[in-house]
Specification:
Blueprint (H helix, E strand, L loop, with lengths): L1 H17 L26 E13 L4 E14 L3 E7 L4 E8 L8 E7 L4 E10 L6 E10 L7 E10 L2 E9 L20 E9 L3 E4 L3 E8 L2 E6 L12 E4 L2 E7 L4 E7 L8 H18 L7 E7 L8 E2 L4 E5 H4 L7 H17 L14 H14 L1 H4 L5 H16 L15 H5 L4 H20 L4 H8 L15 H9 L4 E9 L2 E9 L15 E3 L1 E2 L12 E3 L6 E4 L9 E2 L8 E4 L1 H13 L6 H18 L3 H8 L8 H17 L4 H22 L9 H14 L4 H16 L7 H11 L4 H15 L7 H10 L13 H7 L5 H11 L4 H13 L6 H14 L5 H11 L4 H34 L1
Parallel strand pairs: 1-10, 16-17, 17-19, 20-27
Antiparallel strand pairs: 1-2, 2-7, 3-6, 4-7, 5-6, 8-9, 9-14, 10-13, 11-14, 12-13, 15-16, 18-19, 20-21, 21-25, 22-24, 23-26
């Protein structure tokens, strides 16, 4: 019954959302001739099936390929032209036939390079409801491309001078069109028959199960795949390789789960197969629906050749190899990484693949559900990993950071061009959407999203008549979240047992001259020591566009109340000072009277609200002082995130920086003493990560920790271990920051030899060694430029790497930007380096406060679209405003803290 209830709530929520985003393809009028006024297809015709055949010679290191695509088409509106997408393919022949197989004259075809349209101009006008037609196109193309998109090549080395090549696809968002002509829009779903020719010593995999293999002679074979479910072009996928696999076949019903990698890494795939099995069965049970095919493949691609991180291709999911590789000694923290990324992509096999938004504006629908359920279903499939608790430290924190500026977009945001569609794949689409969906799911489980409960809330509007329609729909409630940018700030004050609430949009700094008009339907939850029935579920809904809302909570004079204690609502809370001081007094007296998530919420809101106002740091430090007794991962992870940000902003203030470092060491020293530095087999991920945080924050102030860090470096110099845990990484980084003169001469070469050692097959070990290079500061440039280093590490690891370089090792920001400028000047606009440039520039911009740094950043950004410069200028403006408002008050508060 409990599972059914959850499914019903999820289904209700999804149906409400999908009602807002219809998926029916309708024709759009087109401008006569060639003057298209939109990047959207006119949809006067739509595909109903594709038969795609590719002939490849990757096994012979020939990277050109030929293709033939036959597209069955229906006509929706009278037209004398067929418009679809194509770019990069050279079309060698094009034919058009009716349902009887008779050719229809084609006058010409044209390519619109800007809109990436292929326009086929016919010798007659097609009428709707006149049967099906077939457009057949022969084309040539190449996988020798360096943007890691479309159909492209990767490789791996098997021995000195021996390299194997493979071909794989990455079509999301708009790169199916770069590999074969197609109707490349997310709202267009149809079936595919895929046939692939490759060498007999290679094999092909695709979305659907393999149906048969035919030998062709000349050392080649034809693989034919079953017809796919109806799906979008961006989910079409194939792999041509000599990879090997580990597989498990489930029964009742039959489902073959396999993970593929280069042959030498197959031994690292067992955990990914098991995690896949457990997650997909948990998902099927939760939603009461079976996975739609009888096989699903995971494919591990060399990290340097896979910019996407992971991709939910239906039945053929691709990942960075470090994301799904696992050795038993790697620790539970690595298990969390494997389970959550598999969980995200497998959730897509239901949300997004089965149920897809019509246009990229609603990308947040499928990405938000996938982000939410990778934690929530992961907590069912792998309860030992406690993933549900990690939602607060993961997506919730990421969303609040991303959603606090003036320039942030709303969840639903319309755009059309290739570059602007790519920018939609951000923390708003993933993390904020997950937070809002999670909030609504809690509300639906509670059963309060019905008119009577909502109007009960309206009656509590203080001293003001609320004018609303007689009935209120889910669309109106959810629209207040999906159509508005930003995160709400709920202010609460107390008058006896009466609690009074107002709302406004939270901005980290630099509020606009004209106040925001944003207003939301906000579910208010709370908890006291004697009443926790509403600690996760809404006690009432705070309506938009009212000046103040009153709610009565029976409390004693000394009893404290926490609001949004488990971060189930997507908003920050600002307590009036007397309430805040009472909470801080209680948490310092006995922090265990509050749940870990409640402590985390109080830390994060208090610090961020103080920074947005430029003051009240005495209260912040009084709150953080309790961390000396904190032993739970959730509040420490949130505190760690905030403390590192303050370290960043104070890094150019010598006095403030030293004081803050002393404060951080004081807070974390007991954590370091409690957990030590050595990984222990069988520990939870929470303990592993707490130990890693303690090493990062407090090792520089501990003689024994520094000695063990140096020992880790000496051990690395002697021999690279088969695997490194996250604690090893933190300890090694501390040691690398303390290199003596002799080590500076020899260690870079030793690390370089280790990274080039072909016998080092563990992708995680290779990844950690590579990340550790940044801990050498300027010495790392003996191995790799700053730019190449930042491009080669993952997007999720980049913030930590920049913090180490700029804050801990005091590398000049100008040095890093100049390296980036030099690297980009050598790359064309289609390279993966160039495409990822803005992401790195934005990360670096978070640290820019000096005028020369700002000028250099703008110089590099100017080679991109104007939006890049605009975003950087806004970030720099935020930095300068933070310095103006917070640098002196924070430094003074730290001075008084140590003088007390």
């Amino acid at each position: 019954m409990k599972t059914f209830r959850k499914f019903a709530c999820s289904a209700l929520l999804l149906s409400a959302l999908l009602a807002v985003t219809p998926s029916v393809v309708r024709a759009r009028s087109i401008v006569p001739g060639r003057a298209f006024d939109t990047y959207r297809l006119p949809n006067t015709t739509v595909p109903t099936h594709y038969t795609l055949r590719l002939d490849t010679d990757i096994h012979r290191e020939i990277f050109d390929y030929t293709g033939n695509v036959q597209i069955t088409i229906n006509v929706l509106e009278a037209t004398d032209q067929i418009v679809l997408h194509s770019t990069r393919s050279e079309i060698t022949q094009l034919q058009f036939r009716n349902s009887a197989g008779l050719k229809i004259a084609v006058k010409n075809f044209e390519l619109d390079e800007d809109k990436e349209f292929l326009v086929v101009i016919l010798g007659t006008t097609l009428q709707p409801n006149t049967g099906t037609y077939t457009l057949e196109i022969d084309f040539t193309n190449s996988i020798a491309r360096n943007d890691q998109a479309g159909f492209y090549r990767s490789s791996y080395d098997v021995a000195e001078g021996v390299r194997r090549y493979l071909g794989l696809t990455q079509f999301e968002s708009v790169d199916a069109r770069t590999s074969f002509p197609c109707y490349d829009e997310p709202g267009i779903k149809t079936t595919y028959d895929i046939l692939i020719v490759c060498g007999t010593n290679y094999h092909a995999r695709s979305n659907a199960p393999l149906r048969g293999i035919q030998l062709l002679g000349g050392g080649k074979k034809l693989s034919t795949f079953a017809t796919t479910p109806r799906m979008q072009t961006y989910l079409v996928a194939w792999l041509i390789s000599d990879f090997e696999y580990e597989r498990e076949v489930l029964t009742d019903p039959q489902l073959a789960i396999a993970s593929w990698s280069k042959p030498s890494s197959v031994n690292l795939l067992s955990y990914s197969v098991d995690a896949s099995k457990r997650f997909i069965r948990a998902m099927e049970e939760y939603f009461g629906q079976r996975y739609s095919m009888n096989k699903i493949d995971n494919v591990a691609i060399k990290d340097q050749d896979y910019a996407a991180g992971a991709m939910e291709n239906w039945g053929l999911v691709t990942y960075k190899e470090s994301a799904i590789s696992y050795e038993p000694d790697d620790g539970e923290a690595r298990q969390i990484g494997v389970v959550t990324i598999i969980g995200h992509e497998f959730t897509h096999q239901f949300f997004g693949n089965l149920l897809a938004p019509k246009w990229w504006s609603y990308l947040w629908l499928n990405e938000g559900f996938a982000r939410l359920y990778q934690y929530y279903l992961g907590s069912i499939s792998h309860p030992e990993l406690q993933l549900r608790e990690r939602f607060v430290t993961g997506p919730f924190q990421a969303a609040l950071r991303a959603d606090n500026s003036l320039t942030v977009r709303p969840m639903t945001y319309y755009t059309e061009t290739r570059s602007s569609i790519g920018r939609l794949f951000d923390s708003i689409a993933y993390d904020k959407a997950a937070c809002v969906l999670r909030m609504m799911n809690y509300a639906l489980e509670h059963g309060v999203v019905v008119d009577s409960n909502l109007f009960d809330s309206l009656e509590q509007a203080a001293k003001e008549d609320a004018v609303l329609p007689i009935s209120l729909s889910m669309h109106e409630i959810f629209g207040s979240w999906s159509n508005q940018a930003g995160v709400p700030l709920v202010k609460v004050r107390r008058d006896g047992n009466e609690y009074l609430f107002t709302q406004e949009r939270y901005i980290s700094n630099d509020p606009p001259e004209v106040p925001f008009e944003n207003s939301w339907w906000i579910p208010i939850s709370f908890s006291t020591l004697t009443d926790n029935q509403f600690e996760k579920l809404p006690a009432f809904w705070m309506p938009p566009n009212v000046s103040e809302v009153s709610y009565t909570i029976e409390t004693t004079q000394d009893e404290v109340v926490t609001f949004n204690p488990h971060s189930t609502g997507y908003y920050r809370v600002e307590y009036e000072e007397s309430m805040l001081r009472a909470l801080i007094e209680r948490i310092n007296k006995d922090h265990t009277t509050f749940e870990p998530a409640t402590r985390a919420r109080l830390i994060d809101d208090t610090i961020n609200i103080a920074q947005s106002r430029g003051g009240n740091y005495e209260v912040v430090l009084q709150l953080l002082n309790y961390l000396q007794r904190e032993t739970d991962y959730v509040p420490w992870a949130v505190a760690y995130d905030n403390l590192r940000y303050m370290q960043n902003m104070l890094r150019s203030n010598e006095k403030g920086s030293k004081l803050l470092q002393s404060f951080v060491e004081k807070m974390a020293s007991s954590l370091l003493e409690r957990y030590g530095v050595n990984h222990r087999t069988g520990e939870s991920a929470a303990v592993e990560e707490l130990r890693s945080i303690a090493i990062d924050l407090a090792c520089s102030g501990s003689q024994s920790c520094r000695e063990k860090a140096n020992a880790a470096v000496h051990s690395l110099a002697r021999k690279v271990k088969n695997h490194y845990t996250i604690e090893d990484e933190a300890l090694l980084c501390q040691g690398l920051q303390q290199l003596d003169a002799e080590q500076r001469k020899t260690l870079p070469d030793q690390i370089s030899r280790a990274l080039n050692d072909k016998s080092l097959d563990n992708p995680t070990t290779r990844q950690i060694l590579h990340q550790s290079m940044g801990c050498m500061g300027m010495d790392m440039t003996k191995l790799q430029s700053f730019a190449k280093y930042l491009f080669d590490i993952s997007e999720s690891d980049r913030p930590k790497a920049l913090h180490r370089l700029l804050v801990e090792l005091k590398v000049s920001l100008g040095e890093i930007v100049e390296s980036l400028q030099s690297e980009l000047s050598q790359r064309n606009s289609n390279s993966i380096y160039y495409k990822n440039g803005p992401k790195i520039l934005f990360e670096i911009a978070r640290y820019a406060t000096d005028s020369s740094e700002i000028e250099l950043l703008n110089s590099v950004a100017s080679s991109y679209d104007p939006w890049v410069v605009s975003e950087i200028k806004q970030q720099v403006k935020n930095n300068l405003r933070w310095m103006e408002w917070n640098e002196e008050p924070l430094t003074d508060a730290l001075t008084r803290f140590f003088d007390a």
